[in-house]
Amino acid sequence: xxxxxRDQHALYLKDQILRLKDxxxxxxxxxxxxxxxxxxxxxxxxxxxxxxxAARGHLDEAVARLEGAEEExxxxxxxxxxxxxxxxxxxxxxxxxxxxxxxxxEDNEDxxxxxxxxxxxxxxxxIEGASVIRF
Length: 135
Description:
This protein is 81% helix and 3% strand. It is mainly alpha-helical. A two-stranded antiparallel sheet has the order 1-2.
């Protein structure tokens, strides 16, 4: 390499050094800002995950309560049907409060059975284990 070429290359390298010395602090600032953004986002993500876990726990508890209530409702309905069946065997009317006649009871019993089947189908429509009780 000739002296002129070496001098030109040295000037080029010095120019590169000056440019890089100017650019590096700018890039370091960018790195610092993005690091802060990342740290903030990571903290927010961790907090969101904790909140999601807590919400999931509350959801699981609510689903368990709902399922327990549905089971209790089914048990109460079954016991009521048994009691009504015993009462009908003794000549008692099915619905004392409604003042229905004996002939109307059979029609209503069929309707009640249909309604119970519909309720059971509706209760089977659930989201993540939760179902809706309709009266």
